[in-house]
Recover the amino acids of this structure.
């Protein structure tokens, strides 16, 4: 488990896989449900 | 004898897997270089905008923002939190270190 | 027996890593096909229209698309040099990268969904490095290995 609670998700143009954006979209969706 | 045979078999399998992994790493490098060559062909890698609008015509009746930024630009999305007025706040931070970022509002009346 | 157990664990780790690398390779293959197809199409358009498209009708790659409801209020702060942006939305949004947009526009010939005509398969094959053609139209083993349907 990471020491400090994760506060944000990151994506790098032409550096991160598309999956990182899927993770961000899921986090936003969950944030809505919560 | 059985355990020794198993050991030999596993060692051979792991050797195969190692070769396979090296081949995949090499192929990934080729492809990344090939994509970079295409992207470096600066005259032609723009994307016809009308097709992004086409996304709107695909029943996407939303507001679309197109963010065009230099490679390496960082996008950060904090975990949504509750604002003072009890409304959820959703944020996007963009940080570039090598050039300006351009944001286009695609389909807002 | 202990050595066998260690090797079994090592073998599983390697199999897992190879699975991830194959998924990445598939993603890159589709990206390569989509980008090259886009470049070819842009060139055809330019020949037909005798010149480059109007300036505000195209967007340079790489780009991201953020889509949110029409009702969403978007507050945006921009640094003077345009190197930093901060957006606040009062509603949810989704973010898609250019590879996703290109796929949705059919630029990778529907390969990711296994809906690709023989003609398009030939074109797709011509857009990837020779050493990797096997993943597109080669023996089943390679195609399956990238789970390209």
């Amino acid at each position: 488990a990471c020491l400090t609670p994760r506060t944000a998700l990151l994506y790098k143009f032409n550096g991160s896989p598309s999956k990182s954006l899927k993770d961000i979209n899921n986090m936003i969706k969950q944030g809505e449900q919560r | 004898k059985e355990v020794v045979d198993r050991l030999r078999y596993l060692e051979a399998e792991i050797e195969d897997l190692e070769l396979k992994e090296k081949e995949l790493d090499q192929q990934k490098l080729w492809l990344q270089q090939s994509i970079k060559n295409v992207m470096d062909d600066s005259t032609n890698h723009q994307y016809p905008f009308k097709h992004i609008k086409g996304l709107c015509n695909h029943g996407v009746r939303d507001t679309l923002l197109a963010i065009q930024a230099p490679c390496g630009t960082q996008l950060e999305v904090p975990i949504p939190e509750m604002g003072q007025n009890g409304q959820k706040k959703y944020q996007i931070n963009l940080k570039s270190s090598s050039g300006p970022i351009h944001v286009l509002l695609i389909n807002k009346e | 027996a202990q050595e066998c157990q260690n090797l079994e664990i090592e073998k599983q780790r390697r199999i897992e890593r190879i699975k991830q690398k194959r998924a990445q390779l598939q993603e890159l293959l589709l990206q390569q096909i989509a980008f090259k197809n886009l470049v070819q199409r842009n060139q055809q358009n330019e020949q037909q229209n005798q010149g480059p498209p109007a300036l505000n009708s195209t967007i340079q790659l790489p780009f991201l698309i953020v889509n949110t409801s029409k009702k969403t209020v978007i507050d945006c702060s921009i640094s003077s040099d345009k190197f930093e942006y901060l957006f606040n939305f009062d509603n949810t949004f989704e973010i898609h990268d250019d590879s996703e947009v290109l796929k949705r526009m059919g630029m990778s010939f529907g390969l990711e969904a296994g809906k690709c005509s023989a003609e398009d398969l030939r074109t797709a094959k011509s857009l990837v490095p020779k050493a990797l053609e096997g993943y597109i139209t080669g023996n089943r083993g390679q195609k399956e290995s990238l789970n390209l349907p």
